[in-house]
Amino acid sequence: MAHVHADAPFVPLGIAVLTVSDTRGFDEDGSGDLLGERLTGAGHALVERRIVPDDVYRIRAAVSAWVVREDIQVILVNGGTGFTARDTTPEALAPLFDKAVDGYGELFRALSRQTIGTSTIQSRAVAGLIDRTLVFAMPGSPRACATAWDGILADQLDARTRPCNFVAMVQPTAAPCVSRQAAPADAERVQGAEA
Asked: Is the separation of the CB atoms in 78 and 38 below 8 Å?
């Protein structure tokens, strides 16, 4: 189980929110609103927010434009993860990933099962690392976004979470994770190797 260490400093991240929808505008984007509120409430910065149609190339273009920016370390994508003909978010993102974060989708579906039962198998939530930017895609409902943020992302985007979190992967100044069982000398060696 993850633990938050009070001694470790919080590291605010720059986060962008991308809503994938053919029908929603900002007035109807409850999922984007929820993610923006959750991430700023946690102490991170909402750098930019956009809505794009469910189109492979528009999704890729938006994500690619954000990946090269220094002020964005994390991209949260909501929508387009189902099985309809227009749901193309996983297909848009997967070719861009340098490394997939397979455990994210697995854990999302496990948590989602508690509220929607076996229907969770129709969620194609995916995540990956593109250069030094983390991208997490989730279904477009506010409840699904709350599940992703509250159950996974709030901890994994918090540098104080131990035994490990993703912050050091996207923020070079953050301390790397060290096992709780590691001796102090081991911790110093790990930190020295990262320098």
From this structure: no
| CB-based contacts of 94, cutoff 8 Å, min separation 6 | 100, 126, 128
What would the DSSP string read from start to end of 65-115? HHHT-TT--EEEEES--SSSTT--HHHHHGGG-SEE-HHHHHHHHHHHHHH
Q: Is the peptide bond before 163 cis (omega within 30 degrees of 0)?
A: yes
Each residue's pLDDT tens digit, 31-74: 999 999 999 999 999 999 999 999 999 999 999 999 999 999 99
* Closest to 105 measured CA to CA, from 119, 121, 126, 130: 126
pLDDT in tens, 127-173: 999 999 999 999 999 999 999 999 999 999 999 998 899 998 898 77
DSSP sequence for 145-185: HHHHIIIIIHHHT-TTEES--SHHHH-TTSPPP--TT--HH
CA distances from 53 to 8, 47, 57, 59, 68 (A): 40, 20, 10, 8, 21
Question: In the structure encoding, which two tokens stand for residue 15, read together?
Answer: 């986060």
Tokens 């990946």 locate to: 67
Give this prediction's pTM: 0.88
Which of 153, 147, 123 minimizes the C-alpha distance to 135? 153
